[in-house]
Amino acid sequence: MAIRRLSRLAVVGLAFVVVTALALVAAPPASAHGYTNAPISRSLFCKQGVVTNCGPIQWEPQSVEGPKGFPSAGPVDGTLCAGGLSRFSQLDDPRGGAWPTNSVRSGQSYQFKWHLTVNHATTDFRYYITKPGWNPAQKLTRSALDLTPFLTVPYGGSRPAYDITHSGTMPSRSGTHLILAVWTIADTGNAFYQCSDVRFS
């Protein structure tokens, strides 16, 4: 009788373990960090469903984390928007230049915004833009970018708020361009990368 009871308990315990394991496999990863919401990034457009066929980034717009040190180090060319992560490669696909754009103006005072889900100790936030004549139908490379950031916001290792705004000025451009925002973490070897398509009117 005792053996039969122990067997039943073992079966119930095993079933619980299997169900829990399956739930963990089926659920999207819970890691979370941050994304830009002004200008709206490719990651956020995917989360909002404005852009479809995005892959797992639609559940994790905050998780584009790659090696820091950009532009001398960091993700390789052609993988910058995905932070070098193959599972987010849809962010690097130029889609023939058809990504939705944020409307901006040259010389405009602009409020650059991030939503963070983990506020890591931070070195800085840097904002880069593509050079005049950039082709939006091509993957982003260092040679396509002005590698001097047009806005740098230092944090010196402090932790930013969960919703932050950086005041800056839009560079002088015309037509469609790409802004690469890089959030460099102070106490790890990584940074977070966000690409936002903009159109200068």
What does this entry look like structurally?
Keywords: Secreted, Signal. InterPro entries: Cellulose/chitin-bd_N, GlcNAc_Chitin_IntDeg, Ig_E-set. It is found in: Secreted. It comes from Stackebrandtia albiflava. Residues 1-32 form the signal peptide. With 201 residues, the protein is an alpha+beta fold. The chain folds into two domains: 1-28; 31-200, chitin-binding protein cbp21 (Coagulation Factor XIII, Chain A, domain 1, Distorted Sandwich). 16% of the residues lie in helices and 33% in strands. The chain contains two helices and nine strands, in the order αβαββββββββ. It has helices at 2-26, 42-48; strands at residues 34-38, 65-67, 102-104, 109-116, 122-130, 145-154, 163-169, 175-185, 190-200. Strands 2, 3, 5, 6, 8 and 9 form a six-stranded mixed β-sheet that branches. Strands 1-4-7 form a three-stranded antiparallel β-sheet, with no helix packed on it. The protein is globular and about 35 Å long. The protein starts with a helix and ends with a strand. The model is unreliable at 9-32 (pLDDT under 50).
Set out the fold topology.
Blueprint lengths: L1 H25 L7 E5 L3 H7 L16 E3 L34 E3 L4 E8 L5 E9 L14 E10 L8 E7 L5 E11 L4 E11 L1
Parallel strand pairs: 3-9
Antiparallel strand pairs: 1-4, 2-9, 4-7, 5-6, 5-8, 8-9
Main location: secreted
InterPro entries: Cellulose/chitin-bd_N, GlcNAc_Chitin_IntDeg, Ig_E-set
Keywords: Secreted, Signal
